[in-house]
Amino acid sequence: MPSNRPERREEARFRILRLLEGNPEMSTRDIAHAVGVSHGAAWYLLAALIEKGLVKAQNFSKSDQKAKYAYVLTPVGLAEKARLTRSFLDRKRNEFEDLRQEIESLSEELSETELTGKN
């Protein structure tokens, strides 16, 4: 996960929206496990998504457990997921490029060390 707090929150929101788009019946415990946050954090993040109008909680009409919900992305939620996907991809591409450059630099450094016989 990214190192700073706003990016971590954004990535958690992205991961939750992505999970719920394909699995609207996930419980907050399932979400917490999949995203790697505590159950309380998952509940808090999900509540914030609902409050912002990105996710709508619907009771299962056929469920014996009336506290069981389906979390459905709203049109606004789908648009936000697309925005977060772009942001996530940009960040990961930058991380990839930074890693590629570091690997290249370390490889060159190792080659130079091996050529001079210094270990």
Question: What does it look like?
Answer:
This protein is mainly α and 119 residues long. It has a single domain (5-91), classed as Winged helix-like DNA-binding domain superfamily/Winged helix DNA-binding domain (Arc Repressor Mutant, subunit A, Orthogonal Bundle). It has four helices and two strands. The protein has helices spanning 5-22, 28-35, 39-51, 75-116; strands at 55-59, 69-73. The two termini are 34 Å apart.
H/E element string?
A: HHHEEH
Report, as a whole number of angstroms, the end-to-end distance: 34 Å
Global Rg: 21 Å
Largest sheet: number of strands, sense, barrel closure: 2 strands, antiparallel
Strand order of the largest sheet: 1-2
CATH topology: Arc Repressor Mutant, subunit A
Number of separate domains: 1
Instruction: Characterize the quaternary organization of these chains.
Output: single chain
Q: Which stretches are poorly predicted, pLDDT < 50 over at least 5 residues?
A: none
Q: Report the strand count.
A: 2
CATH superfamily: Winged helix-like DNA-binding domain superfamily/Winged helix DNA-binding domain
Q: How much helicity do the residues have?
A: 55-70%
Q: What is the top-level CATH class?
A: Mainly Alpha
DSSP helix count?
4
Give me the secondary-structure topology.
Elements: H1 5-22, H2 28-35, H3 39-51, E1 55-59, E2 69-73, H4 75-116
Helix pairs in contact: 1-4, 2-3
